[in-house]
Structures are given as C-alpha cells and as structure tokens.
C-alpha cells in the first residue's frame, strides 16, 4: 500500500497522517499501561489466601477482559492502510502475534522474584535464574524465526522494499557504531559496550526507517 493509494475521505484517519500517529501512540501507551494490570490476577493467584483474595482476583480479571475488548475494538491499523484482503487479514494477525511476543517473553521475568524477594530487572546485566531465562529463550527463539518467515511470506513488493530498507539502515548503523564503541572503550573513552543497548537502538532505527519508507514510497 503506497501513499498515493490512501483514501482522503472526510473523517477517515489516513495512515501516515499526524492524526494516525497520534492515535497509534495513545493506543500503544494505553496498552502498555493496561498489560501489567491484565496479568495481575495471575500473579495474585499465586498468593491468594482466602475468599476475599479470590473475589478481588475475579473482579480484576473481569475488568481486564472488558478493557481488553475495548483495546481490541479500538486498535489502530498498524499495517498503514493494508487492504482488507486475505493477505491483509493475515498480516493483521501476524501483527497481533508480534504485539503478544513482548508480554509472553517478559512474563517469566514479572512472575518470578530473586532469591531475596527482589524484583528482577530486564534492563540489567545482572544474572537471572535459569527458570526465568529458559522460558524467555524458548518464546524468543521459536517465535522470532516463525514471525520473520510469516511476515516475509505475506508481504507484497512494497512492504518487502520497506522492510529491506529498514534493515539496511539499521545494519549500517550497527556496522558503524559497534566497532567505534568497542575501540573507544579499549581506549578508555567510553564504558564497556553493551550489546542490548546496540540491539534496542538498532531495532528502533530499523522500524523508523521502515515506516519512513512506507510513508514516502
């Protein structure tokens, strides 16, 4: 779907417009705030100790289902105007899978505590228990190759071009920054390179470049 294919009907949120990005951002922020609340019943159930606790858990669970339906019905079109064809529907379900990947991979981290009851931190280089790491590795190592295959198989030429452009820009960034940071660290100018910082920055750049290419053609 190219920029020239987008409808300009009155009242319609045109993919790529300021209103589109505003709605997408607000929805994503709201979902990020909602997800911890949605998994709260699972965490509380492990410590439930009486009818009142289960009543609270049930109330939170029902509220989560209700709010979750609202998020589902108001979800913006992350495909930026992909037609409602069979392929377009498959792409939307793939995006649902991508959205669920983060919570699924991060759930073991949220549901477990350290040996002294401390909260486990994802954005840290501290050691993690094997019971936490193995499920996260399993979700990531199975889901990522599968999603990459499905996205590639269901993409049209325009989407493949945007994806290739995004990964090209992200790859060039990594090729440049990684050795510079490594050499600067060895020279005492910068702290030790952190692979996850490079990963996150590269991921952000890949997606921004992808979206830019989709919008500008």
Mean pLDDT: 78
Number of domains: 3
Total beta-strand segments: 0
Structural shape: globular
Cα radius of gyration in angstroms: 21 Å
What is the assembly state of the chains in this entry? single chain
Low-confidence stretches: 1-10
Write the element-wise H/E pattern from the N-terminal end onward: HHHHHHH
Strand content: under 5%
Summarize, please.
With 217 residues, this protein is mainly alpha-helical.
If you had to describe this structure to a student in words, what would you say it looks like?
With about 220 residues, the chain is mainly α. It folds into three domains: about 1-80; about 85-155; about 155-215. Helix content is about 70%, strand content about 0%. The chain has seven helices and no strands. It has helices at about 20-40, 40-45, 50-75, 85-110, 130-155, 155-185, 195-215. The longest helix has 30 residues, at about 155-185. The chain is globular and about 55 Å long. The protein starts with 17 loop residues before the first helix and ends with a helix. About 5% of the residues are buried. The model is unreliable at about 1-10 (pLDDT under 50).
């Amino acid at each position: 779907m190219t920029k020239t294919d987008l409808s300009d009907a009155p009242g319609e949120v045109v993919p790529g417009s300021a209103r589109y990005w505003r709605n997408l951002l607000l929805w994503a922020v709201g979902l990020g705030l909602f997800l911890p609340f949605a998994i709260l019943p699972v965490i509380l159930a492990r410590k439930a100790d009486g009818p009142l606790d289960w009543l609270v858990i049930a109330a939170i669970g029902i509220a989560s289902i209700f709010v979750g339906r609202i998020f589902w019905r108001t979800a913006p079109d992350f495909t930026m105007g992909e037609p409602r064809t069979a392929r377009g529907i498959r792409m939307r379900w793939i995006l649902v899978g991508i959205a669920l990947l983060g919570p699924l991979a991060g759930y073991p981290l949220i549901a477990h505590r350290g040996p002294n009851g401390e909260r486990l931190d994802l954005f840290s280089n501290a050691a993690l228990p094997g019971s936490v790491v193995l499920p996260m590795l399993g979700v990531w190592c199975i889901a990522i190759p599968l999603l990459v295959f499905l996205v590639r198989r269901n993409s049209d030429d325009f989407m493949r071009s945007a994806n290739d452009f995004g990964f090209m820009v992200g790859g060039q960034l990594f090729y440049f920054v990684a050795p510079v940071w490594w050499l600067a660290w060895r020279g005492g100018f910068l702290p030790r390179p952190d692979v996850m910082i490079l990963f996150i920055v590269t991921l952000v750049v890949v997606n921004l470049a992808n979206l830019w290419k989709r919008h500008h053609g």
